[in-house]
Amino acid sequence: MLSIGTEKSDRITTITNTTWAEYISLDLPSKRVSFRNGVITIVSPGRNHELIGDYIRAIIWTYCRQNNLALFPYNQTTLKEEGKEGKEPDVAYCFEIDKDKPDLAVEINLTSGSIDDLTKYQYLKIAEVWLWEDNKIRFFVYRESGYLELTVSNSLPNLNSDRVTEIVNSCFGKSVLEVEKYFP
């Protein structure tokens, strides 16, 4: 078992040589838990992780409100491909109508790797994934061959990754309500 992290960063615990049954038996409501190839990863989000997630949620809600787009939150609902993959996104939504899986999942990676997250989401066939790492966001759209990076969201047309990055970085450390100032 490996653990890393500080009070403001994420704390990550990895458990190897596990089974799907062990994964689905876990009940850790305040953690983000994933499973792949016999490895359970448990992330205890730090304060900065949660703040970034809240700014991104506020951006999505404000965009949807301004564009009269219905949204249905998934947030940390466990997404799974039975017996193979399991993932709890930091932020996730369906748009227009409620569906069995989200149209968009967002991962905030302050101390963990994005490649593994994208691989997990690929098995789960999530249409669009946003990854926050190194103080910027990247958008990816699902293709059978793998995720393709985009600069403009498929789910939220007219919203680009540079704008989301700018808003989050400008608002960091301020009230989440500051996000609304970026949507006149």
CATH architecture: Alpha-Beta Complex
SSE sequence, one letter per element = EEHEEHEEEEEHEEEH
Biggest pleated-sheet summary = 6 strands, antiparallel
Number of domains: 1
Distance between the termini: 48 Å
Radius of gyration based on Cα positions: 16 Å
CATH class: Alpha Beta
- Average of the residue pLDDT scores: 86
- Number of β-strand runs: 12
Beta content? 25-35%
Task: For the largest sheet, list the strands in their spatial order.
Answer: 1-2-4-3-7-6
Please estimate the helix content. 25-40%
Gross morphology: globular
CATH topology: tt1808, chain A
What does this structure look like?
With 184 residues, the chain is α+β, with helices and mostly antiparallel strands. It has 4 helices and 12 strands; from the N terminus they run ββαββαβββββαβββα. The strands form 2 sheets. It has a 6-stranded antiparallel beta sheet with strand order 1-2-4-3-7-6, with helices on one face. Strands 5-8-9-10-11-12 form a 6-stranded mixed beta sheet, sandwiched between helices. Helix 2 (47-66) packs across helix 4. The radius of gyration is 16 Å and the shape is globular.
